[in-house]
Amino acid sequence: MTIALRRHRKRKLKAEINVVPYIDVMLVLLIIFMVTAPLLNLGVDVDLPQSNAKSIQEKKDPVIVTVDRDGNYFLAVEAGRNEAVTREELLARIRAMVAQNPQLPVFVAGDATASYQRVYDAMQVLQEAEVDRVGLMSNPEQGRGR
């Protein structure tokens, strides 16, 4: 009888899950991600003025604010010629235009050699003038046809 009780005890099933293999796999994955994460944060060279995007079709000519490489602002209204303006003049004129038409589309055309900060400053002026729609202009890439 004692032999039967001993065999019965050995055959009893455990209701616990062995999580050691899962922990091992998790630690291996953690090490892999820790090694590869710094490699994914490398800088990328970007040439912003080139684009393959289709041009936006507007019913009315938009206002174009041009920024040259020296940081000077030029304003073109309804396909007019570019007029050199100061920051304050640009702010006042754009505010007046936005007061008449709140949905006025404004594009910023930055020189390819202009610093990003100067283009960003022009966008800040437009934000102060409460312009809702601002776009960046670019030249299409030459030699690539679709």
From TrEMBL:
GO terms for molecular function: transmembrane transporter activity. It is found in: Cell inner membrane; Cell membrane. Keywords: Cell cycle, Cell division, Cell inner membrane, Cell membrane, Membrane, Transmembrane, Transmembrane helix. GO terms for cellular component: plasma membrane. The chain crosses the membrane at residues 21-40. It comes from the Bacteria. InterPro entries: ExbD, Tol-Pal_TolR. Its main location: membrane. It is a single-pass membrane protein. GO terms for biological process: cell division; protein transport. Part of the Tol-Pal system, which plays a role in outer membrane invagination during cell division and is important for maintaining outer membrane integrity. PANTHER family: EXBD MEMBRANE COMPONENT OF PMF-DRIVEN MACROMOLECULE IMPORT SYSTEM (PTHR30558), TOL-PAL SYSTEM PROTEIN TOLR (PTHR30558:SF7). The Tol-Pal system is composed of five core proteins: the inner membrane proteins TolA, TolQ and TolR, the periplasmic protein TolB and the outer membrane protein Pal. They form a network linking the inner and outer membranes and the peptidoglycan layer. Belongs to the ExbD/TolR family. This is Tol-Pal system protein TolR. It comes from Vulcaniibacterium thermophilum.
